[in-house]
Amino acid sequence: MRRWAGEGATLRHDRRVTGLAFAAALQFVLMAAVLGAYGYGRHLADGDPGRAFSNARWLWDLERALRLPDEASLQKGALRWDGWVRPANEYYVRVHFPAITVFMVWVYFWRRRAWPRVRAVILGSAAVALLVHFAFPLAPPRMLDGHGFVDLMTAYGPSAYSSEPGEGMTNQFAAMPSLHVGWALLIAWGVIRHGRGRWRYLIAAHPVITFLVVVLTANHYWLDGVAGSAIVVAALWLTAGIPALDDRTPGGAGTSARRDSVGA
């Protein structure tokens, strides 16, 4: 009897592990497919350079009317010492997708209760951003002539873009909105809300650094970052009152996968 009981417990454990692995694989495939579709959709939205440059000039004038700091003057001042440029380019190119991927893995395996809401925010913000790319193509500041911008990725490397617009899988006319900034804000929100310990508040530097990097490297305007942040904040607000996406944990911030349900 004891042997049969032990074999039954082992079988249940194996089934639970298999269920966890299958659920994790399913979520991985879902998110990879969605993010891949988002990236490919961005590429499809790059067919109207005329509108992209017209929108860029309009946005530039709007920012000046709003008395936002001149991005070109800010970049010129920062380039008095250019030791920051290569690290900033690396941050722009290397951090964005790895950071959101690591964040999703952390939430799914160690803060499972928060996963449905985080997933909804990522999917929703990607969908809205893609619609904006089609509706409002926008050339980045580094492509604007006559304003004094330096294309720092071309001048210093590494570059996230091909030498010519329309080549490769990256749309250079998708500056609005900046999900670099929006998802950096989401990561900071998630870690602070669901993490533990005082060190988690250091993550607040991530969206600040990201915002400065995308502007100083002339890849985005101020309003690109504002729009990306607004989309994520709106998604968080809209998902806050949905019971199925409730990420509150009784008794403290966050929870482990062992204490949460297996279902995603």
From TrEMBL:
Q: Which residues cross the membrane?
A: 20-40, 91-109, 121-139, 173-192, 199-219, 225-245
Keyword line? Membrane, Transmembrane, Transmembrane helix
List residues of the Inositolphosphotransferase Aur1/Ipt1 domain: 57-238
| Membrane topology of this protein | Multi-pass membrane protein
Q: Which domain of life, per UniProt?
A: Bacteria
Please report the name of this protein according to its UniProt entry.
Inositol phosphorylceramide synthase
Keyword Membrane on this protein? yes
| UniProt xrefs under Pfam families | PAP2_3
Q: Which InterPro entries match?
A: Aur1/Ipt1, IPC_Synthase-Related
Cellular location of this protein? Membrane
